């Protein structure tokens, strides 16, 4: 899944394609930046036809993909930032990024909700919550996350908190990666490159939102998505999530 846009994609499309082996090249059926970015991601896997991948393999492939796209853009003299919110899964591990190739702009929003083997994609800011049950406690789509014990049966990554219990949700910062392991552990890791700004740097809290908003990829933080808008889609192998 890709939520965002590769800057000046028509100018670098052929360059991206030149790095993709024939087997993967022939799998692509369209011409969108999402599909070719995913093909590039597959090319970073030692065996893209493997049945499963460790979270570390997916993480490294994603980092290499983002870095390679940045290098191609730089070589082409492209100065507009690329919005690279990606989500990939092999059905067991999940890797999600919230990323922009800029030190001064806010990344686009993205949502991937994982719930007992299902995933769903939305479009706003990024937050995550976890627990043992997620259920409706009042009519009108009022849901809450509950924790019966220390186990994590449910992990949700969403654009905005899906409930009014804001304390249950933690925001995913710009230029960070979230990894969900097969054992339902959630790791948030910064993507450290030339566009990463540490939280201790005042620039981090001063990122501008105009660019992503102009692209239609950032909604106000004040909106809270109604949980009854969710429609679950069965999680598929990593080869199926291209756009």
Gyration radius, rounded:
18 Å
Q: By helix and strand content, what is the structural category?
A: alpha+beta
Number of helices: 5
H/E element sequence = EHHHHEEEEEEEEEEEHE
Report the strand count: 13
> What is the mean predicted local confidence, pLDDT?
80
Task: Note the main attributes of this structure.
alpha+beta; 5-stranded antiparallel beta sheet; 6-stranded antiparallel beta sheet; 21% helix; disordered C terminus
Would you give an account of this structure?
By secondary structure, this protein is α+β, with helices and mostly antiparallel strands. 21% of the residues lie in helices and 25% in strands. The protein contains five helices and 13 strands. The protein has helices at 9-17, 22-25, 33-43, 55-75, 210-214, and strands at 2-5, 83-89, 94-98, 111-115, 118-122, 127-131, 133-138, 142-146, 154-158, 170-171, 176-180, 186-190, 233-234. The strands form three sheets. Strands 10-6-9-4-5-13 form a six-stranded antiparallel beta sheet, with no helix packed on it. A five-stranded antiparallel beta sheet has the order 1-2-3-11-12, covered by helices on one side. It has a two-stranded antiparallel ribbon with strand order 7-8. β4 and β5 form a beta hairpin. α1 (9-17) packs parallel to α3 and α3 crosses α4. The longest helix is centred in the first third of the chain and has 21 residues, at 55-75. The chain is globular, with a radius of gyration of 18 Å. The model is unreliable at 110-124 and 221-243 (pLDDT under 50).
